[in-house]
């Protein structure tokens, strides 16, 4: 069961804030606990910022999936960037090609229940984040 | 100048620069807040900075890095930075992210933070 999808276009740092708001709203809609909500919104913030900074912008879509009582939020973030050369290396803490701490991608993975990343040098990077209510 | 005005009110009490961050500042607003805090420390010859983050639902790696940098800058200017009001969920998330916020002091509330900072000053004089 999928319903109520929301999308946020990612172009500027202000759009990253909009993505956080949409993520918080989706987690509130499944009655997520404060800790799950904070973890998921933080993960979304990291991924959305990556799309803006490294991915030449993109779009993030939120869906609520699963049967009543076991609802989960799935976020899919797709960018138009050059892709990630070595995804395994990029997931390691401390890896960065910019000025950041290099904790965003690996950190986001630790914060959610399911994390998937597909990157190709032609079509950009697609990250899927999934999180339950508890 | 109004266009550079902080989205967050900054005040100085008893030699402490105090700011309560409202929820969801975007990255640019966080950077401009950092600039303004450092300027305020210099202008008021402040001894400390108290940053209340109780309304922040999340602190991601960007915001965390800015808080840590702010504390370092204040220290170079001989001011102590104390962060107050961190929500439990934010603390847990920071640990999972691997953000240790090195050099950033925390206190339970603004009262204690101001006491700590002004107490230090009384001892020195």
Ordered list of secondary-structure elements with their pairings:
The complex is a heterodimer of chains A (134) and B (125).
Chain A: E1 2-10, H1 13-29, H2 34-53, E2 58-65, E3 72-79, H3 87-91, H4 104-111, E4 114-120, E5 124-132
Antiparallel strand pairs in A: 1-2, 2-3, 3-5, 4-5
Chain B: E1 10-13, E2 16-20, H1 27-43, E3 48-52, H2 61-76, E4 80-84, H3 88-97, E5 105-107, H4 110-124
Parallel strand pairs in B: 2-3, 3-4, 4-5
Antiparallel strand pairs in B: 1-2
Helix pairs in contact in B: 1-2
Structure description:
In chain A, 42% of the residues are buried. Chain A has one domain (2-132): Histidine kinase-like ATPase, C-terminal domain (Heat Shock Protein 90). Chain A has 134 residues and is an alpha+beta fold. In chain A, a hairpin with a 6-residue loop joins strand 2 and strand 3 (72-79). Helices cover 37% and strands 31% of the residues of chain A. The radius of gyration of chain A is 14 Å and the shape is globular. Chain A starts with a strand and ends with a strand. In chain A, helix 1 (13-29) runs antiparallel to helix 2 (34-53) and helix 2 packs antiparallel against helix 4 (104-111). By secondary structure, chain B is an alpha/beta fold. In chain B, 46% of the residues lie in helices and 18% in strands. Chain B contains 4 helices and 5 strands; from the N terminus they run ββαβαβαβα. Chain B has helices at residues 27-43, 61-76, 88-97, 110-124; strands spanning 10-13, 16-20, 48-52, 80-84, 105-107. In chain B, strand 4, helix 3 (88-97) and strand 5 (105-107) form a beta-alpha-beta unit. In chain B, 35% of the residues are buried. The interface between A and B is medium-sized, with 26 and 22 residues. Chain A: Residues 15-129 form the Histidine kinase/HSP90-like ATPase domain.
């Amino acid at each position: 069961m999928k319903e109520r999808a929301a999308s946020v276009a990612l172009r500027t740092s202000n759009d990253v804030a909009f993505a956080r708001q949409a993520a918080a709203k989706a987690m509130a809609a499944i009655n997520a606990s404060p800790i799950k909500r904070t973890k998921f919104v933080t993960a979304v913030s990291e991924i959305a910022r990556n799309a803006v900074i490294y991915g030449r912008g993109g779009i993030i879509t939120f869906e609520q999936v699963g049967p009543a009582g076991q609802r989960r939020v799935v976020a899919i973030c797709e960018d138009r960037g050059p892709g990630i050369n070595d995804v395994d290396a990029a997931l390691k803490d401390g890896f960065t090609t910019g000025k950041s701490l290099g904790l965003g991608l690996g950190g986001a993975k630790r914060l959610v229940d399911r994390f998937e990343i597909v990157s190709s040098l032609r079509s950009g990077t697609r990250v899927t984040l999934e999180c339950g209510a508890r | 100048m109004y266009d550079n005005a902080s989205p967050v009110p900054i005040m100085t009490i008893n030699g402490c620069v105090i700011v309560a961050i409202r929820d969801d500042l975007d990255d640019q607003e966080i950077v401009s807040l950092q600039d303004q805090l450092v300027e305020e420390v210099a202008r008021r010859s402040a001894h400390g900075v108290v940053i209340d983050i109780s309304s922040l639902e999340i602190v991601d790696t960007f915001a965390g890095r800015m808080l840590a940098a702010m504390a370092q800058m204040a220290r170079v200017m001989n001011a102590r930075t104390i962060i107050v009001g961190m929500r439990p969920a934010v603390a847990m998330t920071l640990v999972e992210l691997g953000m240790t916020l090195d050099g950033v002091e925390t206190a339970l509330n603004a009262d204690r933070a101001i006491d700590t900072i002004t107490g230090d000053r009384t001892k020195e004089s």
